[in-house]
Specification:
Structural class: alpha+beta
Largest sheet: 14 strands, mixed
Shape: globular
Number of strands: 14
Distance between the termini: 25 Å
Low-confidence stretches: none
Number of helices: 8
Strand content: 35-45%
């Protein structure tokens, strides 16, 4: 029996031309005797289309070429089905593939996506929207956006953007957090809601995070001066610092004293005053090295 595989490709993600990639995938599938069905996303009713193709072909894996947004859309489409998702990193936000330590080369990634074993990964539900990776409220929504748009890469690029973002930043906000049957109040610059450890830039924000432990972490950054940002970027996240509080839980609410910028997995979601968060345990099967 030939295995059926559905290949979902976002043709415009990360501004990269995908024709070589599609060719490589088709070649790999032919060599390994898979039945391959290719679907290119259009941005209109993709979720429904993927569900329809799934019902027609019943693939045992769905291989996704795109960024976090495309992966998340496929995971939502497959919420009620038992299917393994493989990733070929090809978006502008590839946070998830950074976290899974996927290799750079296309050949190795093809093997992992099509053939390797998988983990059952948690997702986080925030105000009814799903997050697979990292979401945050506060400064970072701007910082990451500025970093991705800037030409200066690496540490100095990040520090430069951080400095600009800090200079233009709003006042700190007061967050009332309910979790683990406790209510706490913190004055914060930013709160990260983390299912995993790293941002797509490779920066580790949540050193103890695990994607399949049934919990997420709230990483509360009370002050955000250049020194602290420098430590975080260089990988020396000061966990024992008074400026950082980490709460590990499976559900929480965050109320802020004024609407604060919020983003989910690199997608800006407007300013929010209230977040209701809970874990969706073992929500998605993901092929890993």
């Amino acid at each position: 029996m030939k295995k059926n595989i559905l290949f979902v490709v976002n043709p415009i993600s990360g501004d990269l031309d995908k024709s070589d990639l599609i060719e490589a995938v088709e070649e790999f599938a032919a060599t390994n005797h898979f039945n391959l069905e290719v679907y290119e996303t259009t941005g209109k009713s993709d979720l429904k289309a993927i569900q329809t193709i799934y019902e027609q072909h019943n693939p045992e894996r769905i291989v996704v070429a795109g960024g976090d947004g495309t992966i998340k859309m496929v995971a939502e489409a497959m919420e009620d089905h038992d299917v393994i998702i493989g990733i070929l990193p090809a978006g502008s936000a590839n946070g998830l593939s950074v976290d899974l330590n996927l290799p750079e080369g296309i050949e190795e990634n093809l093997k992992i996506a099509f053939l390797h074993h998988y983990i059952e990964m948690d997702m986080i539900c925030i105000n009814g929207k799903k997050s697979i990776h990292l979401s945050d409220i506060g400064l970072n929504a701007n910082l990451v956006k500025n970093y991705e748009e800037s030409d200066v890469r690496g540490f100095w690029g990040y520090a430069l953007q951080a400095f600009t973002t800090l200079k233009e930043s709003d006042d700190p906000f007061v967050a009332t957090i309910s979790a683990n049957n406790k209510k706490v109040e913190h004055v914060a610059r930013m709160i990260v809601i983390a299912n995993s450890q790293k941002y797509g830039t490779g920066v580790i924000i949540n050193p103890n995070g695990s994607m399949n432990d049934g919990k997420f972490e709230l990483v509360i950054l009370k002050s955000l001066d250049i020194l602290l940002i420098g430590k975080i970027i260089t990988g020396n996240m000061p966990i024992d610092s008074d400026d950082i509080v980490i709460i590990s839980t499976d559900k929480a609410t965050i109320e802020t004293d004024y609407p604060v910028n919020f983003q989910i997995d690199g997608e800006y979601c407007g300013a929010q005053k209230s977040l209701e968060i809970h874990i969706l345990h073992k929500q998605m099967k993901l092929a890993v090295p």
